[in-house]
Specification:
Blueprint: H1 2-20, H2 24-33, H3 39-82, H4 86-94, H5 101-118, H6 123-127, H7 130-149, H8 153-185, H9 190-245
């Protein structure tokens, strides 16, 4: 009876020790104290930390950028169309922040129209009429601003798709090392198996924690960019009509 009690207490202590070895803090201490035995796990952990830092950097940058654009878009577009004098409207666009995309698109159209007007009678005017020249400038402007909206999305997509596999690499290598140790020592008790395997599974969990925010942010920003690009196209079409014909489609010409 005493022997059974002793064995039970020993088993309980062994299980408790095994559970302690499954923690993140224990894994971190082991990796730092024995870097040679955890070289792959260290590389995986460093890679995941870098990927997480990059993804969160672009999440914050894109969030700030989209908030600024959505906050100023209606004001900039409305002020442009409500300004009775075209020169005043263009001057207002020139006063906007360099990162404001709608004003840059409008300035591209205005500069193209002015350039075409200054070179009337030249080969440029003979090869491209005013409408085509303004349209080309607007297409370039919209493409440029749309490309700027996509900054960082490639990083988010890459992190979201590869981080789980990077973490899985650390898990597979950790389990492989645990099996090697078990085979070498001949011990297959819970304290010999649970600790190394539990530590290895932490890498997969870390990979998922890195990937999930990146995937959610990528889908969120793609949706926002789609809406913003639609506004770019609408504004560009109105600008084309204005600078090519002197008025927007549907606008009633003022009587002189």
């Amino acid at each position: 009876m005493l022997q059974e009690t002793t064995n039970a207490v020993a088993a309980t202590g062994s299980n408790a020790d095994a559970l302690k070895q499954m923690g993140v803090d224990h894994l971190a201490r082991e990796m730092l104290s024995n870097p040679g035995d955890y070289i792959v796990q260290l590389v995986v952990a460093a890679t995941l930390i870098i990927m997480s830092a990059m993804s969160w950097y672009w999440i914050v940058i894109n969030l700030i950028k989209n908030v600024r654009i959505r906050g100023s878009a209606d004001r900039v577009v409305t002020t442009f169309w409500e300004t009775p004098n075209a020169q005043d409207a263009i001057r207002f666009m020139e006063e906007q922040n360099k990162a404001e995309p709608f004003s840059k698109i409008a300035l591209d159209a205005a500069q193209a129209a002015a350039h075409h007007q200054r070179h009337e009678g030249s080969r440029l005017v003979e090869s491209l009429n005013r409408s085509e020249f303004v349209d080309r400038a607007l297409r370039q402007g919209v493409t440029r601003e749309s490309s700027r909206l996509e900054n960082g999305l490639t990083v988010l997509a890459t992190v979201g798709s590869t981080a789980p596999f990077v973490g899985l690499l650390g898990t597979v290598w950790g389990i492989y090392g645990a099996l090697i140790k078990i085979g070498a020592t001949g011990q297959a008790s819970i304290d010999a198996v649970a600790g190394p395997v539990g530590e290895a599974l932490i890498m997969t969990a870390v990979g998922l924690f890195v990937a999930i925010p990146a995937v959610l942010a990528y889908n969120f920003f793609v949706r926002l960019n789609r809406v913003t690009n639609s506004k770019f196209d609408t504004f560009a079409h109105d600008l084309h009509d204005f600078f090519a014909t002197g008025s927007r489609v549907g606008e009633i010409p003022s009587k002189r």
